[in-house]
Design goal:
Blueprint: H1 2-66, H2 70-76, H3 82-86, H4 92-127, H5 134-138, H6 141-179, E1 189-197, E2 216-224
Antiparallel strand pairs: 1-2
Helix pairs in contact: 2-6, 4-6
Length: 225
């Protein structure tokens, strides 16, 4: 009986100490499982948050390019051509830059000739016949002054036209964005017809002393919407 009780007591002690030893391991395993689940939930939350932000960004980009905003088109056109790209009128981009290219070519070409004749005129005035400038030797001082002023006028005019072209491409982008919201349907019509008014003498009696007036002719343009 004692031996049996002793064995029973010994087994109980062994299970007790094993339970004490394994309890931290089980607690640590549970903590690890909880931390893993929290990490997974955190990753899923961050992934869902990134997906929502990505969807919002894509929606904003689609809205940005689907419906042109006149203010945005105006701001973008401060850099030539971006307003036309924003309005999806890509075919206008070569026209914009071709205009700047042609006008810039004439502007700087006239500027180079202006500087050459300006230098020759200055040399002619200061050194007279001793000036070794080829242009000063071929032209008189008056001719050099006239040619110089002509090139300067053409240079200034070219830069003015370049500024007008810059403003024109901005107006084109702004107006094009405004016209996007202008609905055109079957009721919108454009009519062009000649307008001829006979001379006033045809409507006057033969005994009238009023001199005949001129006749008028032209075109009348009417837009209905």
């Amino acid at each position: 009986m004692r031996i049996h009780f002793y064995h029973k007591f010994l087994v109980t002690q062994i299970f007790f100490w094993l339970a004490l030893l394994l309890m931290p391991i089980s607690v640590q395993a549970q903590d690890d499982m909880k931390s893993d689940s929290l990490k997974v939930e955190g990753k899923q939350y961050r992934t869902a948050l990134l997906m929502k932000q990505s969807q919002r960004i894509n929606q904003k980009i689609d809205t940005f390019f689907s419906k042109p905003n006149p203010k945005t088109a105006t701001y973008l056109s401060l850099f030539p051509g971006l307003g036309q790209v924003y309005n999806k009128k890509y075919w206008k981009l070569p026209i914009v830059y071709a205009g700047f290219g042609v006008i810039g070519y004439f502007a700087f070409d006239n500027r180079n000739y202006y500087l050459q004749y300006k230098e020759a005129y200055t040399c002619k005035i200061n050194e007279g016949e001793d000036c070794e400038n080829p242009l000063a030797q071929n032209y008189t001082a008056d001719n050099l002054q006239t040619i110089r002023d002509g090139y300067r006028r053409n240079m200034e005019l070219s830069f003015i036209v370049m500024g007008l072209w810059y403003i024109l491409q901005m107006l084109d982008a702004t107006v094009d964005a405004h016209l996007y919201y202008w609905e055109i349907d079957e009721t919108t019509t454009l009519q062009v017809h000649p307008n001829i008014q006979p001379a006033s003498w045809m409507a006057q009696p033969s005994f009238s002393n009023v001199p005949p007036g001129p006749s008028f002719s032209g075109f009348t343009v009417s837009l209905k919407f």
